[in-house]
Design a protein that fits this description.
alpha/beta, six-stranded parallel β-sheet, three-stranded antiparallel β-sheet, 17 helices
């Protein structure tokens, strides 16, 4: 890795599984933290065996969320396992967990006890709902969080047979919560530099989803105040969509007040992703007219302002679609980019996996793995001038157990005895 690793010296006990917690700790590991992933002996994180593409090998689900970590197996139900965890807490900076409510307490590790062992410890938790919430006992997964946080009610189509709340394929509940938690952990570390004390940090999945739905909460308040939302495709011809004063699902409309839509390109009949997203930005109206060869739209009062255009925005999009029907999505974007029009091709996972620009920037990286051979994964979305994270393989189950125990002061004989008792 080139440059300084800013999180060098930060030791993290990673008591997380599946996606939200592991995404958080993986990012911190990329930036230099020593992340020790603690798993149950014999089985480990459930994602090691979920959705496998190669028999008896850690699944991509696991490898793509646990790179750069060290692996320790530990049975905290045994006296020896509990002692190991106590020693880890005394020598670590952060513990991250995404157990169900009360699980740590039942293990004997209440916040009070953790503070007693290490007053500087930061305990970071992923929860479904915030503490004291009337749903705090509910078990929460990705799509549950998207529904509870408002994303599903505002995504998809408003009428027709598919007019149901829709889940996003982006991990708004899981990885997004992990990213929020990473910010919380780093904030608590800086806070500790000032006070010398650790603290609890928690992010609820509902809250993390809601934070990404901020503009929809904006629209709800606007709707209640004025009775309509003129930038939504339902306005003005489907005003009944607003009668219940609920922010509607806007299909592919833009969320920032600039009308936008997904438009068909050449080959859409057979290619499910032969589309572009096109935005009609107010100040870019004249370049749009030039690009389409429609100079008359520049002076026609039915087109000159966003308000004038909105009643026939569908017709405008149909005209653009007609213009690009004989062009591939890449050819269409190449035309519009010359006019500084915000647009992009709809890129499939197949295309993104092979995207040369993403590989060059480190946004997609190939990682060697001891058992499965190499695999591709998503690299750091954050880029630095003096830090280029090196993405390393995820640990095999318990790969670093002996190493971590030796660092905690255990002798070879003690380690062997713990293995014999299946404490590790």
């Amino acid at each position: 890795m080139s440059g300084n690793k800013p999180l060098n010296g930060i030791k993290i006990i990673d008591f997380t599984h599946v996606q939200a917690g592991p995404a958080c700790t993986q990012m911190l590991a990329w930036f230099g933290a020593d992340v020790i992933k603690v798993e149950r002996p014999g089985s480990g994180d459930v994602t090691r065996s979920q959705l496998r593409d190669i028999p008896d090998v850690d699944a991509l689900y696991f490898t793509m969320l646990n790179s750069n970590k060290r692996g320790l197996t530990l049975d905290t139900k045994t006296a020896e396992g509990k002692e190991v965890l106590e020693k880890l807490i005394k020598t670590s900076d952060v513990m991250v967990e995404n157990f169900g409510p009360g699980a740590l307490d039942r293990m004997g590790f209440t916040w009070e006890y953790i503070q007693k062992l290490n007053p500087r410890m930061i305990l970071a938790s992923v929860k479904g709902f915030s503490e004291g919430h009337h749903y705090e006992d509910l078990k929460v997964y990705e799509n549950v969080a998207q529904c509870a946080g408002g994303a599903a009610s505002t995504t998809g189509w408003w009428k027709g047979e598919n007019a149901v709340p829709t889940i996003s394929a982006a991990a708004l509940g899981d990885t997004n919560t992990g990213m929020h938690l990473a910010i919380g952990i780093l904030t608590a570390i800086i806070g500790r530099q000032q006070t010398g004390k650790g603290q609890k940090v928690a992010v609820a999945m509902q809250d993390a989803v809601l934070n990404l739905c901020r503009v929809k909460m904006r629209d709800q308040q606007r709707l209640e105040k004025v009775g309509y939302l003129e930038e939504y495709p339902q306005y003005p011809h489907e005003m009944d969509a607003f009668k219940d004063k609920v922010t509607p699902r806007g299909g592919n409309a833009g969320g920032g007040g600039q009308p936008g839509w997904i438009l068909k390109c050449k080959g859409w009949e057979t290619d499910p992703n032969a589309y572009i997203y096109f935005t009609v930005q107010g100040h870019a109206w004249e370049p749009i007219c030039d690009a389409l060869g429609k100079p008359e739209w520049k002076t026609d009062p039915a087109y000159t302002t966003p308000k004038a255009r909105q009643p026939h925005i569908d017709e405008i999009f149909a005209t653009i679609e007609d213009f690009i029907k004989d062009k591939t999505k890449f050819e269409a974007v190449d035309i519009f980019r010359k006019f500084d029009i915000p647009c992009a091709p709809v890129l499939s996972m197949k295309e993104l996996l092979r995207d040369e620009s993403l590989r060059k920037s480190g946004s997609i990286v190939e990682v060697p793995h001891k058992v499965r051979g190499s695999y591709w994964t998503i690299g750091s979305p954050i880029k630095f001038s003096d830090l280029k994270p090196e993405i390393k393989a995820s640990p095999l189950l318990g790969e670093h157990t002996d190493e971590v125990l030796a660092e905690l002061g255990y002798s070879k004989d003690q380690i062997a005895a713990m293995h014999a008792k299946k404490a590790v």
